[in-house]
Amino acid sequence: GPHVIVLGNEKGGSGKSTTAMHLIVALLKAGHQVGAIDLDARQGTLSRQVENRRTFAQRNDLRLDLPEMRTIDRARDADTRADAERQERDALSAAMDDLGSCAFVVIDTPGSDSHLSRLGHTLADTLVTPLNDSFLDLDLLARIDHDAKKILSPSVYSQMVWEQRQARAQAGGRPIDWIVMRNRLSHLDARNKRDVGRLLDQLAKRISFRVAPGFGERVIFRELFPKGLTLLDLRESGTGVNMTMSHMAARQEVRALLSEIGHGSEAA
Amino acid sequence: GPHVIVLGNEKGGSGKSTTAMHLIVALLKAGHQVGAIDLDARQGTLSRQVENRRTFAQRNDLRLDLPEMRTIDRARDADTRADAERQERDALSAAMDDLGSCAFVVIDTPGSDSHLSRLGHTLADTLVTPLNDSFLDLDLLARIDHDAKKILSPSVYSQMVWEQRQARAQAGGRPIDWIVMRNRLSHLDARNKRDVGRLLDQLAKRISFRVAPGFGERVIFRELFPKGLTLLDLRESGTGVNMTMSHMAARQEVRALLSEIGHGSEAA
Ligand SMILES: Nc1ncnc2c1ncn2[C@@H]1O[C@H](COP(=O)(O)OP(=O)(O)OP(=O)(O)O)[C@@H](O)[C@H]1O
Ligand SMILES: Nc1ncnc2c1ncn2[C@@H]1O[C@H](COP(=O)(O)OP(=O)(O)OP(=O)(O)O)[C@@H](O)[C@H]1O
Ligand SMILES: [Mg+2]
Ligand SMILES: [Mg+2]
Predict the structure, then answer these.
(1) Confidence (pLDDT) at A243
(2) Which member of A250, B206, B226, B261 has the lowest number of beta carbons within 10 Å of its beta carbon?
(3) In chain B, which residues have their Cβ closer than 8 Å to the Cβ of A59?
(4) DSSP-assigned letter for residue B158
């Protein structure tokens, strides 16, 4: 079956949808058949981005690789919670059947806790968690005593991942390869970056994930949203020296993430 | 009663909790009695920040102004949705009674749609919506046709605000002063910043909010989270020239936001 990559982080705005889109396009460019599931139907950022891509291609008569897209909403009209959960399981299961012949399926999850998001997490061969370089974001992974430089306990999101890892193991699934990816890294900010990096390395051992260097804060990661394009769709040369520098660095960052995901599945 | 400031944006990671903390400390420094309500109990970023502040003050034997803090969780154990909603209304109402003698109450809401978050919105005299400088974030305010440069329709979050404005009006409340505040503004990024700015100005007329210049992307807005401090607690001089520049600019940004909020209540 497909290699399933889930973008997960209960912390909002960490970069799940942005990373999902760039992984999808990178995998398409590498020649793979790619499926995509948006579990955040209310906001629908990934669905919108892919729809924008399709529209841009049509309006400009272009051939642009597109993923096979599925959008799954929370079950809102069910009479009981058990009914709602069954509807969500069935919808997700049907989507996975539709996408069964894809080499990769990328699943984007909402920045909030829900049964549907948890279901999505159990499907992960690789879980990619983007993270702002910030103590606020770390707070959802672990409670930390900064004076004592000690990790006190796991926090809501790592607890959720732990529970879904258990659920997956009990259903006979192989272990989830969990990658925490630093995102929106500033080019300044030496001390905070170093402090967050150290804490992440400590957490990685405690909570069983590995850290990927991730993406810098770059306008190119967000300014092409209206066209549904990514930097990977642009000509290598970019437009002018500075643009080219950030453009090439961004390309390297996406490649490095893809390679990190690949290493996980080789090791597995 | 108190002047209620709600931080609202269904888009995650737009800066609600960060802005809430800085408004709270700015108002305390101005000599006001300030109440704070955290409606995002699961993540609890604001509650944690205030708890960190209290701990830091105790450990260092310091006098530090603190808000009167209330944290309200979603009702999870209720038998029916009607029960859950009544529990939430009662809890919020009780918190507002407790804080009745405060000059200001600052309410932080989650980055997701819920009955509790909507209730919080109806209490707003001023609604402050921080927004990343990004088409992705704008997408939750309005569907936009970028080719035609046209606003197609309001999107999920502005629809939600519209409904809560109606609910408040029907309950006899005064109009909500809605301020959309740009956040994490990059010092580079001229074109994207300009494009987003133009769209915001168009949206402001259509959706009835005003735009505040907001905060730049500055490490000082997040690196003091472990101590529960803000830049407003630090000595004016900062630590070194570059630190001082960003420090002073950040101070100005917080002051400008406070003044913008004040203008709204004068006009009202
Ligand atoms: N590396 C980056 N460089 C620049 N901007 C970025 C980067 N990553 C994300 N962004 C911007 O940060 C904001 C949050 O990103 P995104 O919407 O992808 O996060 P998310 O985790 O999917 O959020 P949510 O929890 O709301 O679903 C968006 O405005 C996006 O354009
Ligand atoms: N002006 C700023 N400069 C630098 N970092 C910022 C700024 N504003 C917010 N941040 C950082 O951006 C991230 C999101 O901010 P914050 O948690 O306050 O947003 P939020 O809207 O409350 O998110 P959620 O929807 O998850 O509650 C955090 O890592 C925070 O430290
Ligand atoms: Mg998203
Ligand atoms: Mg918050």
Answers:
(1) 59
(2) B206
(3) 147
(4) H
The distance of B107 to chain A (nearest Cα, Å) reads 18
- Output the residue whose Cα is nearest ligand 1's atom 8: A15
Output the DSSP codes for A193-213.
HHHHHHHHHHHHHHHT-EEE-
Q: Which amino acid is at A22?
A: H
Question: In this structure, which amino acid lies at residue B252?
Answer: Q
Q: Which tens digit of pLDDT belongs to each residue from A110-167?
A: 999 999 999 999 999 999 999 999 999 999 999 999 888 889 999 999 999 999 999 9
CA distance linking residue B149 with residue A265, whole number of Å: 44
Kindly report which listed range (B56-60, B94-98, B188-192) carries the lowest average pLDDT score. B188-192
3-state secondary structure of A200: helix
Q: Relative to the CA of B109, which ligand 2 atom is closest? A: 27
How many other CB atoms sit within 10 Å of the CB of residue B126?
A: 22
* Whether B123 contacts B161, CB under 8 Å: no
Strand A150-154 and strand A142-145: the pairing is antiparallel
- Four-point Cα dihedral A25, A27, A28, A29, nearest 10: 90
Which residue is listed with tokens 């981005």? A49
Considering only alpha carbons, which residue of chain B is nearest residue A148? B226
Choice from B10, B14, B17, B18 to test ligand 2 binding pocket (greatest atom count within 8 A of CB): B18
Burial code (b: 16+ CB inside 10 Å, e: under 16) for A47-56 equals bbbbebbebb
Per-residue CA distances from B176 to A10, A135, B1, B82, B169 (Å): 30, 33, 15, 26, 9
pLDDT digit string, tens, across residues A1-45: 999 999 999 999 999 999 999 999 999 999 999 999 999 999 999
A186·B217 Cβ contact <8 A: yes
Let me know how long chain A is: 268
